[in-house]
Design goal:
Elements (H helix, E strand, L loop, with lengths): L2 H32 L3 H17 L1 H10 L2 H20 L11 H16 L2 H12 L2 H12 L1 H20 L1 H22 L3 E3 L1 H4 L2 H6 L16 H31 L4 H33 L1 H25 L3 H16 L2 H12 L3 H30 L1 H17 L20 E3 L1
Antiparallel strand pairs: 1-2
Helix pairs in contact: 1-2, 1-4, 1-6, 1-7, 1-8, 1-9, 1-12, 2-5, 2-17, 3-6, 3-17, 4-5, 4-6, 4-9, 6-7, 7-13, 7-16, 8-9, 8-13, 12-13, 12-15, 12-16, 12-17, 12-18, 13-14, 13-15, 13-16, 14-15, 14-16, 14-18, 16-17, 17-18
Length: 423
Amino acid sequence: MNKRLVLLLMAAASAGYIGRVAVTIAAPGMMKDFGLTQAQMGTVFSTFLIGYTAFQVPSGALADRVSARRIFLVLCLGWALLSTLTAFAAWHGYGLAMVIPQLWLIRALFGVMAAPTYPTSGRTIAVTTPPRLRARANSLVLASVGVGSAVAPLLLAPVAGRCGWRAALLVAAAFSVAAGLLWLWFAPRQFHSSESATLQPAASTSLAAGSPKASPQPLRSPSFWFLFASYLLQGYLGYIFVFWFYLYLVQVRHLEVLKAASFTALPWVATIFAIPLGGVLSDAAVARWGATWGRRSVPLAALCIAAIFLLIGARTPSPMVAVLALTACTVLVLGTEGPFWATMTQLSGERSGLAGGVMNFGSNLGGMVSPALTPWLAERIGWESALSLTAGLAIVAGLLWLRVRVEPGDEARGASSPAAAPC
């Protein structure tokens, strides 16, 4: 495994996630200055996901054709520029009447710029890392969800409190600039994996028994579409915490801003460790129980238990119990990322770029709906009932894994990777 490359991927993905989450830290100040309601702010959140979701599949195709080094240099520059534009929205009242369209446009473009992040990371890991280490490598990059979401409230909330929400967004832009400089200075133009090269003979001998070339149609597999459906619901649940956890603690549980920021960071700090751990446990379960039940076990258990914690967090009268329960729910939900992506790879083999884009499209389709639908439901039936309905979806997401089947022959599909590829 190319450790330097994985670290660069983690840095870029984390900077991008800070840019995503920064707007939620800025949201209370933006809502106050611009007179926005929760529902209106929710549409701003969802607009990001429109661009992000719509470009998932095209970005997977892009990752197959353009070097990761070039992609991430452009992405980091774009994130910095768009965070800065958000900070200057309706500056000194100019364009205040058009502030919602401004924010919609900027956040949609941010979503487009963020879309290639994980398809490009997944493709890069696929061509540099042997199959036995890919789940761990992907999990480390996916842990950027926790890194970015933990850093944003801890660093940006104090800045927003002292200097205003615009300054907090400019700090987020600085992280993107720093990540871009790391890629400019340290990313190689070509990378090699001697370990993956040694896998070529083994891959060649398996062509007749289920290699990528023998079974190249993952999108025709029923198991893939059950996986897609489960990931869609997991995305719906996960994005509620990404966009609304901080505001829920401030506006519904009435915690102080800085205390809410600290509590908001808890689940994301935990997921920094939980996402890689989920991948390690899934690999260990496969070794113990076989491919199908090994991959099923972690997400099936985690999503169903997460539903219980979500019900507790929604219904308890104690703000502290709510924080702890919702933290546990977030950790369990995001801890399933590794098994989802590892299973997709096993089902898809050399088509993992396309399949990964389609699967991530499903997750973000759910995520695009939830930031706007959840406060809409909360305004009508209350936050307690809205979150309880979401707990039911978590159970469904877990049970869908009972229809995901990974055949033993699928293990060989990820065995082939080129020894060198452009970076």
